[in-house]
Specification:
The chain is mainly α. The chain has one domain: Formate dehydrogenase/DMSO reductase fold (Up-down Bundle), CATH 1.20.1630. It is built from 12 helices and no strands. It is found in: Cell membrane.
Amino acid sequence: MNSYYDRPLLKGPHWGSNVVTYLFLGGIMGGLGLISLLSDDRPEPEMKKLRKTSRYTAFALAAINPPILISHLGRPERFLNMLRIVKLKSPMSLGVWGLVLYSGAAGANALRELADDGVVPKILRNVAPSATVPIQALLGAFMAGYTGVLISATAIPLWAAGKRHIPAFSVCSGAASASALATLLSTLQGNHEVIPRLERLEMAASALEIAFIADFRKRGGLATAPLFEGRVGKRLRNYTILGGIVIPFALNAIGGAVKLPKAVDALRSIAASTLTLIGGYVLRESLIEAGKISANDPQVAFRQPS
């Protein structure tokens, strides 16, 4: 079956770097919620430092991400209009509310840390009950998965084929990127004692991520070709699979197995974390670019199940 003069059957997305950045930071925010929960009420000094780092960073990203979304929407009132109602069957509506609620929980937990540090009056610590920590973690898991659900709930063949896989490896990538960012910041702060724990978390998340990506390639059929072949596929292999997962995994494994000089180990951690973050960004970028290519192929669109 052919389309009219082989013109595209679907209208492709006109998404640019602001959407890629929004999805990338949303995944990291989700992972930081988990790290904040894991480090909560731990007595070790290094875990207390990690708790502060994760909560301050999560709040900073929660403050940055809404303006990025607004830059995509074009006008601030479009963002505000989305808050007038809640559509339980709309990924976009639930995502916006998830972002707002996550930002509130992240802000409350950051306020607790500011009160503990003496930056604001101690009484403000009571504004945020301890329950906001698991709430932020739950909302974070939602945010990390929602970034995958958002693009897979469409008619774009590639994205529709990944309605199970894309949310799954988005969550894993978000956890790996959050661990990498926390490792990078902890290294720069001199909090070296916590780095092995973060790197183990990153390795576990990365292992699941590459497994889900490989399974998507195996089960996705012809619809996945734009993501794994051609220019986009080459970029995904070089920057995400190899540079963002395999090499950082090997570097982290070396750090766990071999006692290196402190300066060398710090450089190793910085390199592994930076590569993981680059790989996470390129994964989202590749998904968006491959989706545009997928939308332009009428043959794949006609083969989609109705």
